[in-house]
Specification:
This protein is mostly beta strands. A hairpin with a 4-residue loop joins strand 4 and strand 5. The longest helix has 11 residues. 38% of the residues are buried.
Length: 258
């Protein structure tokens, strides 16, 4: 992947790839790849970052590539991410795949803890034709919104989750967000490294959901409330070196719920 891809289109690119079919079919979501401990965010001292200035959305800055060590400095220094706002909560996960005589498939992923029950249901065919998806939190249907425009948006396509995936919870005094992370069904090659997060604002009625995307390294969305009480997050596009390993990352800063 060329390192000069404009990072301003990262999220649209990732979500477009999730929604579209290709050959092979459809690309094969908590917080921060909660499907395995390797994606658990690094904890930092909240006092040390609480005085950091709000990172501004600057296209020139967002087009800058960061080595993996420098990227940590950007996240915890310049951006001022406070990882103590995030908690993995004990979750019982159940993944069920069913098919009928007409080869219609239904994939159900259910994640339950003492306070929250999140259920994601996808119904369709193997090639993704005429597919539908539904999201329920505490048995209430939740509408998805476009994180760029905050208008009602399309539900995500077929997402894969694995047994053992845990819910993540971001907590601020006035707001709480659930996050669950998975991958697109059938993703191959480096597309397998794209993570999709379902983020749900559980502090409002009705609840609102957003589909986020980023690369698996570092595998974190780094959600933060800035001084204007806007929710921000970072998505990354990888820059691959000669041996195919990720040498650096192109971060892009997004604001949702403006």
């Amino acid at each position: 992947m060329a390192g000069k891809i404009e990072s301003a289109i990262i999220l649209k690119f990732l979500i477009f790839r999730l929604k579209m079919k290709f050959i092979p079919p459809l690309l094969s979501l908590l917080l921060l790849a909660c499907n395995s401990t390797e994606h658990t965010p690094i904890l930092t001292d909240s006092v040390s970052v609480s005085r950091s200035r709000d990172a501004m959305i600057d296209e020139q800055e967002n087009e800058k590539a960061y080595g993996l060590d420098d990227f940590d400095h950007y996240v915890y220094g310049t951006y001022g991410y406070d990882s103590t706002r995030f908690t993995l909560i004990p979750t019982k996960s159940t993944i069920t795949n069913q098919s009928d005589e007409d080869d219609r498939l239904q994939n159900t992923a259910e994640f339950i803890n003492k306070d929250y029950q999140l259920k994601y249901i996808w119904t369709g065919t193997e090639n993704g034709d005429s597919s539908t998806s539904q999201l329920f939190v505490n048995n209430k249907p939740v509408q998805f919104f476009d994180p760029q425009t905050n208008k009602e948006g399309d539900l995500p396509g077929d997402l894969d989750f694995v047994e053992g995936t845990q819910l993540g919870l971001y907590t601020w005094p006035s707001k709480k967000y659930l996050l669950i992370v998975g991958q697109a069904h059938g993703a191959q090659s480096w597309y397998r490294g794209i993570l999709y997060g379902i983020l749900v604002n559980v502090s409002v009625d009705p609840m609102r959901a957003y589909l986020l995307g980023t690369y698996e390294d570092p595998g974190d969305f780094y959600l933060k409330l800035n001084t204007n009480q806007q929710l921000t997050y970072i998505s990354c596009m990888p820059d691959f070196g000669e041996r195919g390993a990720v040498d650096s990352l192109y971060p892009h800063l997004h604001i949702i719920e403006k």
